Amino acid sequence: MVLGLLLLSLPAWSQTIYVNAEAGGANNGSSWTDAFTDLQLALAQAQSGDEIWVAVGTYLPTSDETDRDATFQLKNGVALYGGFAGSEEELGQRDWQDNPTILSGDINDSTDLDGNSYTVVTGSGTDSTAILDGFTVTGGNADDDSAFFIAPARSGGGAYNNHGAPTLANIIFTNNSADNLGGAMLSSSNSSPTLTNVTFSNNVADRGGGMYNIDSSPSLSNVIFSNNVADRGGAIYNTTNSSPSFNNVTFGNNTAQFGGGMFNTTNSSPTLTNATFSNNTADSTGGGMYNQIDSAPSLTNVTFSHNTAGFSGGMFNNIDCNPTLINTLVAGNTANLNFPDIFGEVNSDSRHNLIGDDTGLGGISDGSNGNQIGSESNPIDALLAPLADNDGFTLTLALLPGSPAIGAGDNEACADEDQRGIKRPQGEACDIGAFESRGFLLARESGDGQATLARTDFAEPLIVNIASGSGEPVDGGQVDFTAPDAGASLSNEINLVSIIDGQASLTATTNAVAGQYVVIARTVGSNDTADFNLENIASFTVGGSLSGLAVGNSVDLQIQTDGPDENLTLDSDGDFTFSAVLDDGGNYNVIVQTQPSDQFCTVANGQGQIETEDVTDVKVTCTQCPSKGGIIHVNAEVNAAGDGSSWTDAYANLQDALGLSEGCGLNSVSIWVAQGNYYPDQGIGQTKDDRNATFQLRNNVALYGGFVGTEKQRDQRNWRVYETRLSGDINNSGTLSGNSYAVVTASETDDTAVLDGFTVTGGNADGDFPHNTGAGIFNVNGSPVLSNLLVSDNFAGSSGGGMYNNLSSPTLTNVTFRGNQVSFSGGGMRNLNSNPTLINAIFSGNLADMNGGGMENLGSSPALINVTFTGNRATAGGALISQSNSNPVIRNSIFWNNRDATGTGTTRASISNATNSKPSFSFSLIQGCYPGGAWENDCGTDAGNNLEDTNPLFIIPVDPETAPSDVGNFRLQRGSPAIDAGNNDFVDGVDTDLDGNPRIMGSDVDLGPFEAEWIFQDRFESSLNVGQVD
């Protein structure tokens, strides 16, 4: 009896079941001759432990063309193997690539997906013993709009896993579709399939063109995602605690609106090792990867390059997402609008990464923890070859000679092998990114032992040969030809030479110094060097004439050459010659070192290059400075331009006055500018229609506008009535096209530089950095005093439509920023590592396509006192957004009726903060920060005495939907809660409001820039009624 029980407990003997669509025998599955022709019959017969061998051919889940629910259901303990020719006796004899075994959803034998099976393969309810190996899965079409959004009829066209963990190997998912989720595969309900040597190509869905994971974490190794399409997550979409692992995976040529390669949301933090993202596209944001809602992937030895998006070509990290990057390369990506490589914060522990362009990046900086990070003005070229087959299952981006990623990784964190299976490290340290270079060979070809005249080209170029002993690409890499820093050497500005057809060739040009020297050619990734022994053989003089020098004066000139500089003092008009000897082709530059205190001396024809003969046409001209240097007058309407000494003899162009103040070294000078229009391309030394032209503020020079043109005292002007416009409309088109990039520049100034009483308008910063920021006022490392300004109707392609501050702390009083617009952030103002002070200010009707309609702060903590933000609009932070440890101090201010993607008047429409930024508010009215009567901590710090959400009762409010807009009247009506609601201590020393009225009219200062004028009227009427008898 015991023996009988043991026999009953034993499983049936495992068997091999054969399937061949062309078999003609008994069709019972017992051999290739008698193979089943229908795979479903084999699955129905199979028991745990069985293997099903399937020959080359196409197999449908049903013969009923109307049964769209039919699917190949995998079974625990059953292994399906495809790729047989139909005669093999051993599993290892099959070739699944040469013998394509196709599981097709085309049950109606049509030429398109209409009417196909909803899901071709189902792995729901399985474990790892359910195996699918050696198949192509195609033609699934989950398009039943009436089904539940995550049901197999609407999601998972190729494969559907609900609480399943099948093993998939040697699979191609292609041309599958789902109207909703997972064109090729969907995994839900804690599914954990294992995928090895799998390709997802040309699949389509709304979310996750290739794969969609919800509460599931598949394991993927040696996997390719290519040419998949979705609205979000072109290749893959992970949501709701999905954290799959990726090892040796390539995401190439996938497309989406958001997250061309991968989209992670809602606590989904996948782990990626040895992965490549290349040629993926997001029409909106995140060409390679998009992360949002507490999703923080972990990336080790991952490469992002050649990805494209509107914003953030490589990776986009929304607020509260900070992925960890180690040995990861993100460079060479493209953003049509802004942020080519990474936008948002990454974990500060991220190390040994190479980031090409740091625009928008937070959390790490260049040089910290082994990180190499370029900038917008100086991006790092990672020197990568195109996506190609460099051995291994997946395509990769090879590191070319000279790549700064070679040998720059952290060995402790590097994977043992690269994405192709090549051992790491190949040198002393592993490489950054998914590709480990095996090194290069460098040898001199020709060009050694030459001599030529100084400042000429050598007869032969310097040529080296570069090769890879392992067949890796070299073309497009770089070789560095290093010449001595001083003495006899080369004059080439750029000695990095690109490799073409296995060679680097430098046309070498000598400098002006004679002598012998050695040029050394080397490249990163090779231990070889090549020496070139060269000699410069040396001559010519430079001179000209001086005129206009006053008797008894002298002028000091200097000639700057490729060799030593020489000074020359002249005390009378006439011809002169420098004694310095220059070689043929030598550069020279003649400048005025010192000039008489009452004269301004200029140089013409003073710069050039020797061309086989002496230079004799340098002209130095000295002119008398105005005797009245305290005030320079400017009036665009003068009949004949004078010397600026009076209104009658005023300059016609503001640039002439600024040039005179600089050339004559006038300090503590005032420039009075009459009403009218002034353009930065007009004046001596300016070029008509030059978009680089700008009004550059100067230390110790105060510009005052608002004059009629007759005043004798500055306080006689009225800037509110007599508008003095600094306009970027240099071509007088009446549009922004062709306008100046920046109307005013305040860079490198201190608080002695003053701009007071002007309208700044018409700037159009639509170029490349820096000409895509600060269209109205551009300010780097400047702290000027700006008062009584209207900054309006300016546009910037990136940020800071009205004003851009970087490393700056300007003071702004009685200013209005309205109707300005940007394609990314800071419609009115962008502050980067800056701490401006604003008093009596308005930000209204400004628009940012992404962040901070009114103002954006990055690493900045401005002081905002009696400031009103209203009618501004952005995708995030309609009024104000603060990121990267920004902590603004806001007092006596109003935030009302702004809009962002969350709506009008919401918390984030007023204030949007990253987790590391926290504004402080007191005595202010901030819409959305007192929902239900309690302070909303997302707004920042409640420092006390803030008003609950109550309408400030502006006289004419403005709808943020109309932004950019110039309309509105933000003075306070009777009954406004903002009246007398401020703290007088914050306006100590502030005498007037934005209208020029007393700053405090009632018992306490009003909120915002205006005092309610009718308070005086009420008090006057009240005094008349004292003692009156009815």
What are the main properties of this structure?
flat; disordered C terminus; 4% helix; mainly beta; 15-stranded parallel sheet; Immunoglobulin-like
Count of β-strands: 84
* Count of discrete alpha- or pi-helical segments spanning 4 or more residues: 5
**Proportion of residues in β-strands:** 35-45%
Average pLDDT metric: 92
- Rounded to the nearest angstrom, the distance between the terminal CA atoms is 122 Å
Give the arrangement of secondary structure elements.
Layout: H1 2-9, E1 16-19, H2 39-45, E2 51-55, E3 57-59, E4 72-73, E5 79-84, E6 101-104, E7 121-122, E8 131-138, E9 141-142, E10 159-162, E11 167-174, E12 177-181, E13 185-188, E14 194-201, E15 204-207, E16 211-214, E17 219-226, E18 236-239, E19 245-252, E20 255-258, E21 262-265, E22 271-278, E23 281-285, E24 289-291, E25 298-305, E26 308-311, E27 315-317, E28 324-326, E29 329-330, E30 334-338, E31 342-345, E32 354-355, E33 361-362, E34 372-373, E35 384-388, E36 396-399, E37 441-446, E38 450-453, E39 462-467, E40 478-482, E41 496-498, E42 503-506, E43 515-522, E44 530-537, E45 542-547, E46 555-561, E47 566-570, E48 574-577, E49 587-594, E50 599-604, E51 607-609, E52 615-624, E53 631-634, H3 654-663, E54 669-674, E55 676-678, E56 695-696, E57 701-707, E58 724-727, E59 744-745, E60 754-761, E61 764-765, E62 777-780, E63 785-792, E64 795-796, E65 803-806, E66 811-818, E67 821-822, E68 829-832, E69 837-844, E70 847-851, E71 855-858, E72 863-870, E73 873-876, E74 880-883, E75 889-891, E76 894-896, E77 899-900, ...
Parallel strand pairs: 1-2, 2-5, 3-6, 4-7, 5-8, 6-8, 7-10, 8-11, 9-12, 10-13, 11-14, 12-15, 13-16, 14-17, 16-18, 17-19, 18-21, 19-22, 20-23, 21-24, 22-25, 23-26, 24-27, 25-28, 25-29, 26-30, 27-31, 29-32, 31-33, 32-34, 38-44, 45-52, 53-54, 54-57, 55-58, 56-59, 57-60, 58-60, 59-62, 60-63, ...
Antiparallel strand pairs: 35-36, 37-39, 39-42, 40-41, 40-43, 43-44, 45-48, 46-47, 46-49, 49-51, 50-52, 77-78, 83-84
